[in-house]
Amino acid sequence: MNALNPKVRRSRREVLRGLAAAPAAASAIAAALSVFGPGEALAEKFPSKRITAIVPFGAGGGSDTQTRIWGETIAPLIGQRVIVENVPGSAGVAGTKRGIAADPDGHTVVVGVASTMTINPFSNKAADYDPLVDLQPVALLGYTPYVLVVANSLKINTLAELIKYGKEHDGELTYAGWTAVGELARRGLELRTGLKLRAVPYKGTMEAMTDVIAGRASASVVDISSAIPFTGKTMGAGSVTPIMMTGPDKSSALPWVQTTEEAGVKDYVIDSWTALFVPKKTPREIVEFLNAKTRLVLRTQTVKARYAELEIEWRDYDVAEMQDFMVRQTKGWKALIEATGTGN
Amino acid sequence: MTSEPMDLRSRHTVPCYARIQVIGGAVVVFIAALVWYGAISLNLGTVADFGAGAMPKALAILLFFGGGAVLVQGLVQRPEEAERAEFSPAPVAILVIAIALFGLFIRGGDFTLLSTPQLGLGVVGPLTVFIAGCATPERRVKELLPMSFGLTAAVLLVFCDLLQVTIPIFPGFAQDAIFSSLGVDGAIRALYLAYGGIAAALYVAFFGLRDDRRD
Amino acid sequence: MTDLFDHLVLGFTVVLSFQNLLLCLVGCLVGTLIGVLPGIGPLATIAILMPMTYNSEPIGALIMLAGIYYGSQYGGSTTAILVNMPGESSSVVTALDGHAMARQGKAGKALGIAAIGSFIAGTFATLVIAALAIPLSKLALSFTAGNYFALMVLGLTLAIVVAGGSVLKAFCMLIVGVIMALVGANPVTGEPRLTFGSQILYDGFDVAIVAMGLFGIAEILRNLEAPEGRPFVSDAVGGLLPDRKDMRESAGAITRGSLLGSIIGIIPGNGATLSSFVSYALEKWVARRPQEFGRGAIQGVAGPESANNAAAQTTFIPLLTLGLPSTATMALVGGAMTLHGVIPGPRVIDQHPDLFWGMVTSMWIGNLMLVIINLPLIGIWVKFLKVPYRHLFPMIVLVCCVGIYSVNSQPFDVLQIALFGVIGYVLHKLRFEPAPLLLGLVLGGMLEDSLHRGLILSHGDIWTFVSAPLTLILLTAAAVVLGSALSPSIARRRQLLQEED
Fold first, then answer.
1. What is the reported pLDDT for C235?
2. Which residues of C touch A342 (CB under 8 A)?
3. Distance between alpha carbon A270 and the CA centroid of its chain, in Å?
4. CATH number for the domain including A212?
5. Is A4 among the domain residues?
């Protein structure tokens, strides 16, 4: 599990304790990095104590897993333990607010996902914060595209066929949804394609997929890591049919599936990501330092292999690119929320 | 919550308002009314797609009749069958204070009615044990004092040092100064060693070194 | 049958090594030790101990995880029996008779039969998984909204049977529990419901917190005012561990519990809790002296403990084969598995058959370790009850506060256990049983969900919704259960009326 030196078996405390105890390889990489990395002078002072990563959801979820992989692999590199603190509540609002209120010294990072950072502020009254103003994005941990899937029993392979089917069988198409993102995906789809999809509420992804597989629900928009076990990696191999990526990019796992552009859908992007944030006032050098170290560990083969298993994509953004990414994301979701009238 | 002193004299003629069934039924009916009130603004929807209000309203009605039946049972009970509801408020209040103190001050925060500072486990722990310990009539202050520190030391050792659970330990205002001078682990260890020492010292001071006071 | 054999052999070859057994032993021991702390249920235990597994190879980590899982489950049952503080909803039923036994000086027997029953049930459930995991996962897929709804209705009616005392009052508690399950924001629209404008209620009620308050803290409050009724064990009555007679009395209960648990655990949903209630109801039904239930009947411990352990085991089927976690604890275990590269879902069985069957066999080893560790520990647990209560209860309060806080880092969670402690105390005084409330809270959300979904999918046609054969069978069973629960009280009422005339 030790990303940088898997052969060395040590107790967790030893591995996670200060640089002195960290594996030699890790310090070697750290030294190598300091030659070209920013925050060279800071490497001595920061981090001066353990880093707490606030995950605004309960333990065991997708963003929690990514954070734990990150914390585990970065700890020997920065010479401090990373402690994951799960602060669930109010759809992620409670933990995010706690992250915003933390000391801006880089020792507390808060994990943000599309829903807590770019959807809640527009649709949830309790989320009285503006991530672009209150938080500084640090680095991307993972990026997950979404895909529109339909039941095999419908014998549909493209969006055009789905629209045609919808017109011929008025009121029959149903949509399995479970989160705010899912509902936005449904309303956005209705708005941009003229489809009519009756919303059927589910408790979670798997319950929903179960009914799409059995043909009890017609369609759903699912994150690709939950979808691939059911779609298979070749055309026609799965227990559900993927018909469109809900964004402009092709998926390497599902290369035959159309993108929104190819399917002729405009202004419709549904995706998800996990990223690290710190309070806005955090010194720039610390932000750069965390960004550089994070990118370094995420480029390692160990993490790449783990991400490949989990079907998580990653994009190598520096701090400025991360900021741009956030601005783009915020604009896109805000437009969709306003267009579908899901805000308040 | 009503409180009646232990009163065995009137066991056989329990007035209506003090009967278990009557109070219980009334409480349930009250809850039903509350739920209904909370659900007024929620829409019912249709059978094919019922709204957020459908279940709460339906259940409130069921609950109303259930509670009403309990209430009526209590009212028509034969007086000698009725039981009197008796509560002892003192231990309840003390224990609630002990737990509430922990909740309010462990990390502090805004609890709508009051804002509290973070005092951390180091301060809140001994207080919670001490106050909780006062809830029993058999309390002995001389035992409670060493226990408060000893238990807190044990919890700090197990949870904060060995298991690395994230719990605030020091008061918010002093936290940074303490951590920067001793380091996080050093500070935790210093605290539980100190508390352990205090507990041992208090124990020796109060009870001497005798080892025969097992009860 | 050759399948079963092949699967088990594959699993054992992966798992059996001295190092792995040691990891499992350590996991089980630490899981028990942390899980036994009052206020720290299996969910908190696993969350706290998860980092312990980080440093092992995937298979070692998984087998350690299995040890922690079963250790924490059993630790939770231990606190339920000793201090009436169930760590999660599946040990609520254990607390009913288990704690009653502890009060009679039979804590050791209750703990012993729980461990033995769990082991037998665990072994049986492992065989079930090994033989039938693949076909059973297809069964789980075929469950419709209507089936779920009917199952929830049946589960809820059983709660009325489980509770002692007035059927009417149990019914009221059940409804209150279901209503509590509805509190909170709609996960899709974010629209709050029954929160009365409070942000605190946005996420609804946490079953573990409500259970600890209603049972554990309320128990302390009751003990504080009635010194004579405390779980003092001056001398263990009739030997520390279960004797031949106890085993004979529990054999049937364990067998039935294992069967029930194995079946109910397969169905996605809170199988462990549901199966413990069902088993208790069944045992009370078949018992020669049903009036002993609630007053320390050993079958009332053996049955539900076997059932919830078997269910805890077969619950891995929907998790491993479909990626469907049925409880928060299972979701966490799934998360931990993901962290070690076993991503629960339909592909794991094809891609990593070694890990899959290794996981299954490590569950059985986890169960074995549980017995090995816990039978000797029982003597120590029982000694805890000899600590004067004035020393014991402040410790419970502190550890409980720390444990609750450590799960979500939310101070309000701590305030809630005080609140529910008082509510539990008042309910006790008013002769309301809290167990049905808890089952209502556990199953209420799914009840509404499946009803809503079923009616949408059937276009509001109620007949289409209920007419599926399995739905009808389950609903009929619910009606029969309700009828039989009502009949004695109706009969008694008639008798009373006749006497009055």
1. 55
2. 189
3. 11
4. 3.40.190.10
5. no
Tally C-beta pairs within 8 A across B and C. Answer: 192
* Paired tokens of C278: 């069902």
Please tell me whether residues A56 and A140 are part of one structural domain.
Answer: yes
Q: Would you say A139 and A295 are in contact if contact means Cβ atoms under 8 Å apart?
A: yes
Least Cα separation, residue A36 to chain C (angstroms): 31
The answer to whether B166 faces chain A, any CB pair under 8 Å, is yes
Would you tell me how many other CB atoms lie within 10 Å of the CB of residue A284? 11
CA atoms of C496 and A213, how far apart (whole Å)? 57
CB atoms within 10 A of CB B3: 11
DSSP letter assigned to residue C321: I
Q: Which of A243, A263, A283 corresponds to the end of one domain?
A: A263
Residue A121 placed within a domain: yes
Q: Is any Cβ of chain C less than 8 angstroms from the Cβ of A88?
A: yes
Q: Are residues A23 and A87 in the same domain?
A: yes
Residues A27 and A128 in one domain: yes
Domain end (from A244, A263, A282): A263
Domain identity same for A113 and A163: no
Instruction: Clarify whether residues A292 and A253 are in a common domain.
Output: no
Contacts 24+ apart (CB under 8 A), C237-245: C237/C104, C237/C105, C237/C106, C238/C106, C238/C109, C239/C108, C239/C109, C240/C108, C240/C109, C240/C112, C240/C378, C240/C379, C240/C382, C241/C108, C241/C109, C241/C112, C241/C375, C241/C378, C242/C109, C242/C112, C242/C113, C242/C116, C242/C298
Domain that holds residue A178: 145-263
On whether the CB atoms of residues C10 and C351 are closer than 8 A, the answer is no
Q: Which residues of chain B lie closer than 8 angstroms to C448, CB-CB?
A: 55
Six-digit token pair at A270? 């549904």
Per-residue pLDDT 10s for chain A (344 aa) are 333 333 333 333 333 333 333 344 444 444 444 444 444 444 457 888 889 999 998 777 788 889 988 998 898 888 888 888 888 877 888 889 999 988 898 899 999 998 889 888 887 777 888 999 999 999 999 998 999 999 999 999 999 999 999 999 888 899 998 888 888 899 999 988 888 999 888 877 777 888 898 888 999 999 888 888 788 778 877 889 999 999 888 888 889 999 999 998 888 889 889 999 999 999 999 999 999 999 999 999 988 988 888 888 888 999 999 999 999 999 888 888 888 876 55
Place of tokens 């799914």: C446
Asked whether residue A16 falls in the same domain as residue A138, the answer is: yes
Do strands A240-245 and A135-151 pair parallel, antiparallel, or not at all (unpaired)?
antiparallel
State whether A78 and A175 are in the same domain.
no
Which CATH number do you get for residue A307?
3.40.190.150
Domain residue spans of chain B: 9-76, 89-207
Distance CA(C231)–CA(C233), nearest Å, equals 6
Residue of chain C whose alpha carbon sits nearest to that of B129: C394
User: Quick check: A275 and A141 in contact, CB under 8 A?
Assistant: yes
Task: Look at the block and give the residue holding tokens 């996960």.
Answer: C187
**Euclidean distance between CA atoms A230 and A221, whole angstroms:** 13
Alpha-carbon span C169 to A206, nearest angstrom: 37
Name the β-bridge partners of C185.
Answer: C192
Contact (CB, 8 A) for B74 and B17: no
Alpha carbon separation from A319 to A129, A281, C440 (Å, rounded):
21, 15, 49
The 3-class SS string of C346-413 reads CCHHHHCHHHHHHHHHHHHHHHHHHHHHHHHHHHHHHHHCCCCHHHHHHHHHHHHHHHHHHHHCCHHH
The Cα-based distances of C2 to B190, B209, C13, C316 in angstroms read 60, 68, 16, 22
Count how many domains chain A has.
2
What are C296's two structure tokens?
């320390």
Q: What is the mean pLDDT of residues C302-327?
A: 83
Q: Quick check: B55 and C395 CB within 8 A? A: no
Residue C482 confidence class, pLDDT cut points 50, 70, 90: confident
